[in-house]
Write a structure and sequence with these properties.
5-stranded mixed β-sheet, binds adenosine-5'-triphosphate, 3 domains, BirA Bifunctional Protein, domain 2, alpha+beta, Herpes Virus-1, single chain, 23 strands
Length: 511
């Protein structure tokens, strides 16, 4: 496909056209950065969630699940630090009245320098042709080096200012760089202010007695406040984990890139409680285990990388992101954090309740340390979907659009077609569905020529198509067609289920 931007546009329109994702409340022109999962999307999302859940909860005897409420006692967010520190630096342009994240304005400005460097590289590539050595060029060309040094300096100045919470310094930097509002083109900026990302709401009927609440900005805190409940009732011994999936809400200022950054999204989090001092061992274990999980889906190991954090959040003593190569570049897909005993200690302090574990081996009480794995379900959806969408040129020169979703995640597993709409073939096809539907999500289609129906299912991501023809009436065999290879096989009706089951074995995928 032409370039990354085109590819991304294609992903978004394909997601809509094939019933995966719609904009929220579209008939009212939509709601910014909020999306609905359509008939296929909801299945793909459910399958990703299940693949994660089983790999966490069923594959580990010491991990159990939880489904905590979205609404929590307001003190939760004081203890977690979200009331005081979960904010982005904002700046308004006085002429356009548009609001921006100050750090994003600076990052975008810095990116322009990288674009200039890229232009130099493209120009040189053209000039030198086959003899072009890119590594040598970028390390010796003064213009490229200059652009990149300037970019790095800009970002490092910004990082220092943000870390020191020097908001007037951030504004001064924006002015010094001569950054203009993309809408009005003016440099007429307000001061930079911190803006909390939590959505507020009210509990209770009357204005006087209502309590101010927040929609949870992460699912993790529901796990921490239930730590002792689960440990006691499940008679869990350290090390053990609690896994949870569910909605989280963030009033993101710059919400863009489709479902990559949404205001309402779903997380899949697991908090693993360990002995103090053993957190680094478990941190490494979860880093490797999570990467293996990603690789198991076959999207290509070259599309993942770790990005270890140098600057750590106040609660962490080690942190890394698993980044994925989205159509717009490598970006965070999952976070793995060693959170120390920060959260449990903070909840102890704010609630006055002890959140400790008596270790029978050490014969002592302690506050466990926590290693967290936290992945956005919607981001995982985007990773799988964008990576799977491919356009192929076939041997006869024609092209086909194929959504190569891992079979275990595909919304529809089997499409069943009668070759033609008469001679009892539709009835027989429907009979086959009656049998398969107990185990699989099956789709029936009798419209258009079979070749066209195959292509529709290719684009829909369906791994298997079964065609019923006149021979089926005689010998109870069908043609089964494989999406990825387009290979066709003649098999007995009674063998369809077994053949499909083989390609969906969780054991085979995960191992
Ligand atoms: P980012 O730096 O992209 O804002 P984050 O570091 O704030 O993400 P975490 O708080 O670590 O994210 O949340 C864990 C995971 O939740 C992320 O790795 C991401 O997959 C997902 N996530 C976070 N914010 C959003 C969002 N606004 N929309 C969709 N997914 C999100």
């Amino acid at each position: 496909m032409a370039n990354n931007e085109d590819q991304f546009k294609k992903v978004i329109s394909h997601a809509k056209e094939y019933g995966y994702i719609f904009g929220s409340s579209e008939i009212y022109d939509g709601l910014s950065a909020v999306y609905d999962y359509a008939q296929n999307g909801v299945e793909l999302k459910k399958n990703i969630r299940e693949y994660w859940w089983k790999s966490m909860v069923y594959m580990h005897q010491n991990i159990v699940g939880l489904d905590a409420a979205i609404l929590m006692h307001p003190k939760t967010w004081k203890a977690s630090g979200h009331v005081d520190a979960f904010s982005d630096p904002l700046i308004d342009n006085k002429d356009s009245k548009k609001r921006y994240r100050a750090d994003v304005l600076i990052e975008d400005h810095a990116e322009k320098l990288e674009n200039k460097a890229q232009k130099e590289i493209t120009k040189a590539k053209k000039r030198f042709g086959d003899s072009f050595n890119e590594t040598e060029f970028v390390t010796t060309n003064t213009r490229v080096i200059g652009y990149r040094e300037k970019k790095a300096e800009m970002l490092s100045t910004m990082a220092h200012l943000l870390e020191a919470e020097d908001l007037s310094g951030v504004k001064a930097l924006i002015e010094e760089l001569g950054i203009v509002c993309p809408v009005s083109g003016s440099k007429n900026w307000t001061d930079v202010k911190q803006f909390n990302l939590m959505f507020g709401t009210k509990l209770g009927a009357s204005a006087e007695t209502a309590t101010d609440l927040y929609l949870r900005p992460e699912t993790a805190q529901g796990i921490f406040v239930n730590f002792l409940n689960v440990q006691k009732t499940g008679r869990m011994r350290i090390p053990f984990g609690i896994a949870q999936t569910g909605k989280a809400f963030r009033n993101e200022i710059v919400a863009r890139q489709f479902i990559f950054r949404m205001r309402e999204f779903e997380q899949m989090e697991m908090q693993f409680f360990v002995r103090p001092g053993q957190e680094m061992k478990w941190y490494d274990y979860w880093k490797q285990t999570r990467l293996k999980w990603h690789h198991s889906l076959g999207l290509g190991p070259e599309n993942y990388r770790f990005h270890d954090h140098e600057k750590l959040a106040h609660y962490a003593n080690a942190a890394t992101d698993i980044e994925f190569k989205f159509p717009f570049g490598f970006k965070e897909l999952e976070g793995i954090h060693s959170r120390t005993d920060f959260d449990l200690k903070a909840h102890e302090a704010h609630s006055g309740k002890k959140l400790q574990f008596f270790d029978p081996e050490l014969k002592e009480n302690y506050t466990p340390y926590v290693v967290e794995t936290s992945i956005g379900l919607d981001r995982m959806f985007l990773a799988v979907f964008s990576n799977s969408l491919q356009e192929e040129t076939l041997q006869d020169g024609s092209t086909r659009t194929v959504l190569r979703l891992p079979a275990i995640l595909a919304p529809v597993k089997i499409a069943v077609f009668p070759l033609i709409k008469r001679d009892g073939l539709p009835e027989l096809a429907k009979q086959i569905i009656e049998d398969l539907k107990w185990d699989y999500n099956v789709f029936y289609d009798e419209k258009d020529a079979v070749g066209k129906r195959y292509r529709r299912q290719d684009a829909n991501g369906t791994p298997f198509c079964v065609t019923v023809d006149h021979q089926t009436l005689e010998d109870k065999t069908v043609t089964i067609r494989h999406r990825d290879t387009m290979e066709q096989q003649r098999i007995a009706i009674s063998d369809i289920s077994g053949l499909v089951a083989k390609s969906l074995s969780m054991k085979d995928w995960l191992q």
